[in-house]
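Q: Got a minute? One more chain.
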Amino acid sequence: MIEGEVQEARITKIGVISLANTFGIINVFVGLIFGFFLWLSFSLLSSVISSASPLSVSSIVGPFPLLVILPLLYGIFGWITGLIGGLFYNLSSKVTKGIKLYSS
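A: Always. Here it is, folded:
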């Protein structure tokens, strides 16, 4: 490649399963972070309310659903979203002739 020359590439098809896997993994981490902050806020809220009520929020919503089930659900829905998005991209790129990428 000559310096200063711009190369062009066109993406007309993507791997649907690899996109779904990537979306799924990203959403597992997002669900883990969101679950941690939600659990932390419920724990702080239950410590404030515990003196007023015998039934606390932390006894209803423990760390397991928020730190395990929530990331799994986020991952599953992210995988499904990536699968559907990849299929739609492959179908629409036939009409639009794909995406142009430039590098210099």
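A: Residues 48 and 56 are 9 Å apart (CA to CA).
Q: Perfect, thanks.
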